[in-house]
Task: inverse folding
């Protein structure tokens, strides 16, 4: 039995925000960086496919790989980029924020990326 069946992540590209919901209740909201205009974060409905602790380098302290190959939610070694359009399409978060999100979601958690 999945203990977190109502959890979902909504990523809002235009406001550069990640929202974590449990049912209709907003549990957390975090700033993020999204893809540059030349490499935009793709809109759509996905899911958390993989979870990796300490992937290192540009991915910071956590990686939440999406069901869309080569894309994920991750920490960063460039915290000044948070709140901007800076990535190759992935969603960047402050390391302490992605660590908190990582602990609250599991594989299969829906991820909705909207404008």
Result:
């Amino acid at each position: 039995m999945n203990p977190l069946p109502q959890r979902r992540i909504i990523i809002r590209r235009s406001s550069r925000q990640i929202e974590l919901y449990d049912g209709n209740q907003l549990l957390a909201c975090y700033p993020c960086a999204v893809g540059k205009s030349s490499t935009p974060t793709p809109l759509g409905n996905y899911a958390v496919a993989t979870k990796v602790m300490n992937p290192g380098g540009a991915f910071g302290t956590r990686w939440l790989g999406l069901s869309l190959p080569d894309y994920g939610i991750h920490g960063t070694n460039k915290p000044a980029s948070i709140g901007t359009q800076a990535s190759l399409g992935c969603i960047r978060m402050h390391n302490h924020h992605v660590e908190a999100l990582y602990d609250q979601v599991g594989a299969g958690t829906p991820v909705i990326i909207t404008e």
